[in-house]
Amino acid sequence: MLSTASTISTMDPSCQDGGDTEASTPLHPQQAPSCWLFYSRPILAIGVGALLFGSGTALSLLYFTQTASVPYLLGPLLLSVGLMFLVTGLVWIPVLKQSQSQPWEGTAGGAPAALIGD
């Protein structure tokens, strides 16, 4: 880590003030961050939600057809939690796309000016 900070400070003459260059200067400023960085959490939420929803559906079918001994609330519980994760992940992706296309212009406190009630 120390060699990275010294390499960055020698490559960029504007960072010669002696400050913390490791955290403030990106290694490759011309490269845009990968889409995986933005969409990894929503994709994970969709995957977990689909897995829980599918297993909840299967356990509910096993319970209601009485082919296996399944606890009473396990199927509907997994079904509802899986649907919650699935919908949250599916809504999260358009919100991220909109936040990337329109940068947030809020006040110093982080709340939008329309909600403050000036």
From TrEMBL:
Ranges where the record places region Disordered: 1-27
Show the GO MF annotations: phosphatidylinositol bisphosphate binding; transmembrane transporter binding
**Keywords annotated in UniProt:** Membrane, Transmembrane, Transmembrane helix
Q: List, alphabetically, the InterPro entries matched.
A: PIRT
Tell me where the transmembrane regions lie.
43-64, 70-93
Cellular location(s): Membrane
One GO cellular component term, please give it: plasma membrane
Provide the topology term for how it sits in the membrane: Multi-pass membrane protein
- Coiled-coil ranges (or none): none
Q: Does the keyword Signal apply?
A: no
* Pfam families noted in UniProt: PIRT
- Polar residues: compositionally biased ranges: 1-13
Which protein is depicted? Answer: Phosphoinositide-interacting protein
Organism annotation:
Champsocephalus gunnari
